[in-house]
Amino acid sequence: MLGTGGTIAGVSTAHPAQAGYRAGVLDIAALVAAAPGIEQLASLQAEQIASIDSKDMGTAVWVQLASRIRDGLQQDDVAGCVVTHGSDTLEETAYFLHCVLPAGKPVVLTAAMRPATALSADGPRNLYDAVQVAASPQARGLGVVCVLHGRIHSACDVSKAQPTAVDAFSSGERGPLGFVGAQGVQITRQLPSQPPGQLPQTPWQPPRGSWPRVELVHSHAGADGAVVRALMQASQSGDPSQKLAGLVVLGTGSGTVHEQLQTALDEAETAGIRVFYASRVGALSGGDFDGLNAVKIRIRLMLELAAETGVGPR
C-alpha cells in the first residue's frame, strides 16, 4: 500500500468538516487504521511515497510510484498494490502506471471526495474495497484499475465527472469493469489479454533528463492561435525545459478546430511539433488513441516521444 496524499488523507478543523480542509496530512498507516476490518483481508505493508494535493502531481512522483510498484510486485508473497491518491489527477496517474507496468498482479488506485475528518467520510470504504480488489485473483491481468464508490474502473476509461459528489467518477459509455461490495469482487466486462493502452512490455527504465514537453490547447470561439505561437516562441528560447515536443488540442464537438487556431497548429507541425486532436466534449472513438480523453492522450504522447528520443521509458 503506497500513500501519496490527497483528500482521502485530508484533515479539516472547519465546520462542516469537509470545508476548508488540507489535503495529504495523514499518512497511509493512519488511513489503514481508520478502515475497520481491512487487515483481515490481507497482510498489509504500508509506505508513504508523497503527501501532496493531487493537483500538484507530476512526473517525479509517477516515476517513483512506478519503480516502487514494479519492485514490490516482483516479490512472490505480494498479491497486489493499492495506491491512495487525490481525486483531481487520479485518472492521469492511473493511466501513466497502466502504460508502463505489466498487466499481471492487480494495481489499484483509490481516492475520496471527503476528507478523513468529514462526517460519513468515503475514504475508509474506498480503501477497504481497493484492498479487496488488489487481493482478488479476478483482478489479475486487467492492468491498472481505480476503485471508488463500489465500482472498478479501467485506467483507460475512468475520469472525474463531478467536482463534489461522492460518486464522482465515471467510465463513460463503456461503463465500469465490475463492482466490489458485500458479494466480493465481480468483474462484468472483460478486456483483451493485453489491456488497451499499454506499451509493448519491455523492461521499464526510469527517464533520463527532462520529459518531452506536451501541452493542452483548447479550441473555442475566437481561438486565434496566439497560445500556440507563444508556446512555439518559448520553445525557441534555448531553455531545454521550454522546448515544445507535442500539442494535444481539445477541439469542439468531434474534434473540430477554429480555422485560425488550425493555421497556428499547421505552423507547429511544420516546425516538427507533434499535434494530436481530442474533444473537449469527451473521448473520441477511433484513431491512434481510441477512447482516450485529452489528458490521457497527453500522457501517451509523452511516453511515445520519450521512447523515440531515448529520454524516458522504452
Automatic annotation (TrEMBL):
Q: Which Pfam families match?
A: Asparaginase
Q: Which InterPro entries match?
A: AsnASE_II, Asp/glu_Ase-like_sf, Asparaginase/glutaminase-like, L-asparaginase_C, L-asparaginase_N, L-asparaginase_N_sf
Q: Which GO terms describe its biological process?
A: asparagine metabolic process
PROSITE patterns associated with the record: ASN_GLN_ASE_3 (PS51732)
What are the record keywords, sorted?
Hydrolase
The EC number(s) this enzyme carries: 3.5.1.1
Q: Is Lipoprotein a UniProt keyword of this protein?
A: no
Family in the record:
Belongs to the asparaginase 1 family.
What is the name attached to this protein's record?
Answer: Putative L-asparaginase
Q: Which SUPFAM superfamilies match?
A: Glutaminase/Asparaginase (SSF53774)
Query: What positions does the domain L-asparaginase N-terminal occupy?
Result: 2-190
A molecular function (GO) term: asparaginase activity
